[in-house]
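[09:14] KT: can someone run the structure on this one? pasting the chain below
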Amino acid sequence: MLIARLHIETHQPCLGQHPLEPLVTRPFHRLAALWVKAIASIRWLAVQTTVSETHDQALQQEEEETQAAVRETRVLIVEDESIVALELKMSLRRLGHDVVAVAGNAADAIYLTGLHRPDVILMDIRLKGKMDGIDAATVIRMQWDTPLIFVTGQADEATMQRAAKVSPAAYLNKPIAASDLSETIAHIVCAHREPSNHRTSHGES
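[09:31] RB: done, structure tokens below
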């Protein structure tokens, strides 16, 4: 009896080594691996979605700030023809800009620029008096570096060469369309905001 019992016990499979165990546990291992991969994919998608939303929010905020800055642009008009100056003033106000002052000659343009420090100057090239718009622009650019838009009806090549030396931000021909005025000012404001934003982000980093 003892010999028979030992014979039976030695032929019984040990726990954990059952021939069917791999067939049973292998699917569970595969399911577990798939579950881990699924969780990792979900987490990755969540991170990407958060990054994308943050980026979109930053872009939207920057665009809103730029639009606000464009709408609130402070403009100095330098024009010796009162009717033209009034039309420009009305057009700028309809576009949402703040006309800080209107100058009729070069001396007033220089004085009012120092007084109001406008964001943009609409400068007529041909002004009555000893100094024209280019002379006034030269002084203004040296002292305050204010962006200038030269406005002219007709100008010869020599005059345009003088004007180019002042490095104006843009040129506009009379009569000025409201759409051209709006696009030009928006472009100038955005161009002058970019270096400022770059310096701010560089300083913060």
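[09:33] KT: thanks! The helical segments are 2-10, 21-71, 82-94, 106-116, 133-143, 157-164, 178-204.
[09:34] RB: yep, looked fine to me
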